[in-house]
């Protein structure tokens, strides 16, 4: 019996989403709203940003699907592919909140050097991917395309909050590692069952436990994108909340400024009655 793309989701993706929803942590109301908004935003961005890239690679033959595994297509990609964009983001985000992370700003978490160095490093990796595609458009098509597509976005994330990420690596390392390992494992199963196949002509041929290295790189980078995005979103929100609190306290201090007492005293003197 052939396992379809939608059947793959029913067996390996939706049960994990359900489990993570069931075991989701209890978050304060404010943080829960931010988490929901973050998941919705990341899912939307994943769908919009991945769709043209994914379809272009399918049209170039970077991978193809087994006979009878696809129920319907939109453009060149199966419907199950579009679902995967959103479901993967959901799994990664729910796991990140299950594992927990602290978005509280700390002293020095906007330091320039780690942000600039990290951003330049990711941009260099993206440029290397572009060179691979140009130098060997067949053999390195998939690997180079992944690097060109993902690394500039991670560079932008690092430019914004790289110093903060560097100060608390355990949180995002755990957030990235566990979903990546699971997605790589089930991807290996899907390839083994013929749900989809990576074309040898457009890949390096290198494998990790039978999985094309390009697939491992893809899941590592996409998971990193989501984890960084959610952590940095909360970090920015907390910073803005603190700034708003300080502005509110400053405004309150202005309203109780000592000159107010002087004004009241002057009024009392004019009325001929004590100010108090």
Description:
With 276 residues, this protein is mainly alpha-helical. It has one domain (5-243). Helices cover 74% and strands 5% of the residues. It has eight helices and six strands. The strands form three sheets. It has a two-stranded antiparallel ribbon. Strands 2-3 form a two-stranded antiparallel ribbon. Helix 2 (29-60) runs antiparallel to helix 7 (213-255), helix 3 (79-99) crosses helix 7 and helix 4 (112-135) packs antiparallel against helix 5. The longest helix is centred in the last third of the chain and has 43 residues, at 213-255. It is found in: Membrane. The chain crosses the membrane at residues 6-22, 34-53, 82-101, 113-134, 140-160, 172-196, 216-238. This is Lycopene cyclase domain-containing protein.
Number of domains: 1
Series of H and E elements: HHEEEHHHHEEEHH
Choose one word for the global shape.
Answer: globular
Rounded to an integer, what's the Rg over CA atoms?
A: 25 Å
Strand content: 5-15%
Structural class: mainly alpha
How far apart are the termini? 89 Å
Number of helices: 8
Number of strands: 6
Strand order of the largest sheet: 1-4
Biggest sheet statistics:
2 strands, antiparallel
Rounded average pLDDT: 92
Q: What level of helicity do the residues show? A: over 70%
- Point out poorly predicted stretches: 264-276
């Amino acid at each position: 019996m052939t396992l379809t793309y939608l059947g793959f989701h029913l067996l390996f993706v939706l049960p994990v989403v359900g489990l993570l929803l069931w075991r989701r942590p209890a978050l304060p109301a404010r943080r829960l709203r931010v988490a929901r908004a973050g998941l919705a935003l990341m899912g939307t961005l994943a769908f919009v940003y991945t769709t043209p890239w994914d379809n272009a690679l399918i049209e170039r033959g970077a991978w193809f699907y087994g006979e009878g595994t696809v129920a319907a297509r939109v453009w060149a990609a199966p419907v199950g592919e579009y679902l995967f964009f959103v479901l993967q983001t959901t799994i990664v985000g729910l796991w990140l909140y299950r594992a927990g992370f602290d978005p509280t700003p700390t002293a020095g978490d906007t330091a320039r050097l780690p942000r600039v160095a990290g951003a330049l490093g990711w941009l260099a990796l993206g440029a290397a991917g572009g060179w691979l595609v140009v130098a060997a458009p067949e053999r390195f098509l998939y690997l180079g395309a992944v690097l060109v597509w993902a690394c500039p976005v991670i560079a932008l994330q690092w430019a914004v909050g790289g110093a903060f990420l560097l100060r608390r690596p355990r949180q995002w390392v755990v957030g990235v590692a566990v979903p990546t390992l699971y997605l790589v494992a089930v991807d290996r199963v899907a390839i083994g069952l013929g749900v989809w196949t990576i074309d040898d002509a457009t890949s390096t041929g290198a494998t990790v436990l039978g999985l094309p290295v390009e697939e491992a790189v893809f899941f590592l980078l996409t998971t990193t994108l989501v984890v960084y995005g959610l952590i940095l979103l909360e970090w920015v929100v907390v910073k803005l909340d603190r700034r708003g609190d300080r502005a509110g306290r400053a405004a309150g201090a202005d309203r109780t400024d000592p000159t107010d007492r002087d004004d009241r005293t002057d009024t009392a003197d004019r009325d001929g009655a004590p100010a108090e």
